[in-house]
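User: Could you go from structure to sequence for me? I need the amino acid at each position, not a summary. Structure tokens:
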């Protein structure tokens, strides 16, 4: 359900390894200027007091009592019970920290914590790419509709989330959609995250240019070199995003054999899609070869790049036809072309996660 007209207020938090950004959301939109506090420090008590302080500062800025707190937090975690495990970017969290119970005890309202990839995907399913594609299909006279969405984020790490028929898939161990643990096609002894991440982009660029990774440009600079905006080794820059595309495309194709839905890409690296998205989709549409030498499409469905005008036109094409019902004079509509689309976030990663957090909290309260 979309709660864009709901008057209830939910407190939110964007938890990064450097900063905690607190806000309040009503009707799916932020209603205050966010509060920014440091996430740095090795003292867990100080960090937890900062989290409490941030939410209290937000409370003072709103004119009614919030109904819940809802936010994403890095994992591993037991999200259902709000227990945070050992975190790489926040090393003070160690051995299991009961964050949900602490905040519920402090504020006396329900608290919901989820993975950032999950909430990003949920937001895009509610108010982003999923309704946008349905609207475009309708305008083009195509009766096809999509109810499943797989979201991935390219940034410091590689995250994922699954929404099916309006419901966020969480898994029994708070580990649903953890695409970062898939095998890396190019470096099989490693995970995909070693290539689909900021460090992956910089590692390839440093290797291709023979420079020290510690002196490597930022991914934004590498993208601008690759597109000719800045001077530098253009081939190395293109190669950097090409490796990301191959590894990400392979892992997304593996995921879609189970999910079968649209794909939305967010995260800090998503803005560089002109250098990687077409290659990523081509990788998804690659063929396998059977042991007797025959070619076999790696997916039962065909992927289309929704950011490419020509591919979007093919994706929107109505290929259905009427077929006869045996032993009758009736016909039924049949579309033999199975297709999905891959596009870039329509809301922006942070806004999508905020909308996801807000809607998740109200959905849980209304159950």
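Assistant: Here is the amino acid at each position, in order:
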């Amino acid at each position: 359900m979309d709660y864009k007209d709901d008057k209830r207020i939910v407190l939110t938090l964007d938890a990064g390894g450097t900063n905690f950004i607190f806000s309040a959301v009503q009707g799916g939109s932020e209603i205050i200027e966010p509060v920014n506090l440091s996430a740095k420090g090795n003292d867990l008590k100080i960090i937890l007091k900062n989290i409490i302080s941030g939410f209290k500062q937000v409370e003072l800025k709103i004119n009614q009592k919030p109904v819940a707190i809802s936010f994403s937090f890095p994992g591993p975690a037991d999200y259902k019970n709000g227990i945070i495990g050992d975190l790489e970017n926040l090393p003070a969290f160690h051995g299991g920290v009961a964050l949900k119970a602490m905040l519920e005890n402090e504020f006396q309202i329900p608290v919901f914590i989820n993975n950032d990839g999950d909430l990003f995907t949920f937001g895009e399913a509610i108010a982003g790419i999923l309704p946008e594609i349905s609207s475009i299909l309708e305008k083009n006279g195509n009766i096809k509709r999509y109810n499943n969405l797989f979201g991935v984020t390219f940034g410091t790490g590689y995250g994922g989330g699954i929404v099916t028929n309006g419901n966020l898939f969480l898994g029994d161990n708070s580990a649903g959609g953890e695409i970062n643990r898939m095998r890396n096609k190019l470096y099989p002894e490693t995970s995909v995250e070693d290539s689909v991440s900021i460090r992956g982009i910089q590692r390839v660029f440093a290797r291709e240019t023979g420079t020290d990774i510690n002196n490597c440009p930022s991914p934004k600079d590498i993208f601008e070199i690759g597109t000719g905006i800045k001077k530098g080794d253009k081939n190395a820059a293109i190669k950097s995003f090409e490796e990301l595309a191959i590894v990400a495309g392979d892992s997304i194709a593996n995921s879609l054999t189970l999910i079968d839905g649209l794909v939305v890409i967010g995260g800090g690296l998503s803005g560089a899609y002109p250098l990687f998205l077409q290659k990523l989709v081509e990788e998804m549409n690659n063929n396998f070869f059977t042991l007797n030498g025959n070619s076999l499409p790696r997916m039962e469905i065909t992927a289309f790049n929704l950011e490419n005008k020509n591919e979007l036109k093919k994706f929107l094409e109505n290929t259905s036809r009427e077929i006869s019902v045996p032993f009758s004079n009736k016909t039924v509509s049949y579309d033999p072309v199975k297709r999905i689309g891959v596009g870039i976030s329509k809301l922006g990663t942070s806004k999508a996660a905020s909308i996801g957090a807000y809607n998740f909290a109200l959905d849980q309260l209304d159950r």
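One structural detail worth keeping in mind: The chain has two domains: 9-114, 129-346.
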